[in-house]
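ok new one. same drill as before - structure tokens go in, u give me an amino acid for every spot. 399 of them this time. try not to just spam alanines like last time pls lmao
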């Protein structure tokens, strides 16, 4: 590290005046700083946002350090949590390590919690400098998180090297625990804490679609999300005389990829039955407009938050057999599971519901019940708090 880097000022927290931590921190709480990327507001960011809202009730005050402040600072819901912007100029701009370590010391944070390969690299080094323990959250299999193989391999290597001194690893599904174990980490370091989302009020009763089914999907669209497979499945369904429309909610990872996907939709003569809504914060309203939620992922899912949100909203789900998804959706009970990268199998699963072969109402009811029992945001926060307690050896407020 350079002397100049050490002299850089620590980022100021973006905190509403009424939640100034100097005056508003409950006596006896333990302060935990989550280190995140912040350029998107997708599944992992939703987890961080929910934890920031729920953990204070369990004795842990959460701060958020953003390395790529873009969408997350603007879209987060837990606005009472202190937010520190520590922008990195490039992937290996390690001057931020010193700034993060000084922030930890100045604000009295007792534990760092990382969420990505980039944040693991920075937080691991800062934890050494600041002499605080590190917890890392595994949201997806890093080695299979992108279709750009070299980038995925580099990220996986960086993550593995960075986590050699981590005190605990949190995997969001059992399949991810196995992935982490195969990366060479001891079983005793890994805890499974499933993702969770808020439970919703009872879904209004309805008779279901009659003339036309609205299929919906919500994602940050990138190649591993499999939107092309869903487009081809639409062609299969329409060729069978099944009236379906698609409501695609979310932005695209790049403009180039957006052009490729929309060009394919045109080639498949689907433009008249697809609505591209773009990104929205109001996912609940979008889910309410869907008869079926479809997630056609090819790989790289830990435990998709959007699947849990659809379950909570009482929307029947069709998803692919990818990593943690079948741990939430039990095939034929809470939704249907199709094989990844197989348009015909995906179309067949959808057709089983539209034809009445599988009861739509039963799927909706079972999904809501399962989400409430197993995948709530409170259960997720309780699991993370228990990991913190083990790492800190009981040194936290409330005991």
């Amino acid at each position: 590290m350079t002397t100049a880097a050490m002299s850089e000022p620590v980022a100021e927290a973006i905190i509403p005046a009424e939640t100034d931590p100097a005056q508003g921190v409950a006596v006896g709480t333990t302060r935990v700083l989550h280190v995140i990327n912040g350029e998107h507001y997708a599944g992992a960011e939703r987890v961080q946002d929910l934890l920031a809202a729920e953990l204070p009730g369990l004795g842990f005050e959460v701060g958020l350090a953003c390395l790529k402040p873009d969408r997350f600072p603007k879209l987060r819901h837990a606005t009472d949590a202190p937010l520190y912007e520590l922008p990195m100029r490039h992937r290996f701009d390690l001057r931020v390590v010193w700034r993060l370590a000084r922030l930890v010391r100045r604000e009295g944070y007792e534990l760092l919690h990382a969420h990505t390969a980039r944040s693991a690299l920075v937080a691991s080094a800062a934890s050494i400098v600041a002499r605080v323990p590190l917890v890392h959250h595994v949201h997806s299999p890093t080695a299979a998180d992108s279709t750009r193989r070299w980038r995925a391999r580099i990220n996986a290597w960086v993550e593995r090297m960075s986590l050699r001194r981590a005190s605990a690893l949190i995997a969001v599904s059992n399949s991810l625990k196995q992935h982490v174990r195969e990366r060479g980490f001891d079983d005793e370091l890994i805890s499974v804490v499933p993702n969770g989302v808020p439970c919703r009020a009872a879904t209004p009763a309805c008779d279901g679609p009659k003339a036309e089914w609205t299929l919906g999907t919500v994602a940050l669209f990138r190649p591993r999300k499999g939107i092309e497979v869903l487009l081809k499945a639409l062609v299969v369904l329409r060729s069978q005389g099944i009236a379906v429309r698609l409501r695609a909610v979310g932005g695209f990872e790049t403009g180039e990829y957006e052009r490729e996907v929309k060009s394919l939709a045109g080639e498949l003569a689907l433009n008249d039955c697809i609505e591209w809504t773009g990104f929205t914060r109001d996912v609940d309203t979008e889910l309410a407009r869907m008869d079926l939620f479809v997630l056609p992922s090819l790989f790289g899912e830990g435990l998709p938050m959007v699947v849990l949100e659809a379950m909570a909203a009482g929307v029947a789900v069709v998803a692919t057999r990818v990593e943690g998804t079948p741990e939430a959706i039990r095939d034929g009970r809470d939704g249907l599971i199709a094989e990844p990268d197989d348009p015909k199998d995906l179309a067949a699963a959808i057709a089983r519901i539209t034809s009445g072969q599988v009861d739509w109402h039963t799927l909706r009811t079972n999904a809501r019940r399962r989400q409430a029992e197993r995948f709530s945001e409170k259960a997720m926060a309780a699991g993370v708090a228990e990991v913190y307690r083990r790492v800190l050896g009981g040194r936290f407020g409330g005991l």
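Residues 49 and 193 are 16 Å apart (CA to CA). and btw The radius of gyration is 22 Å.
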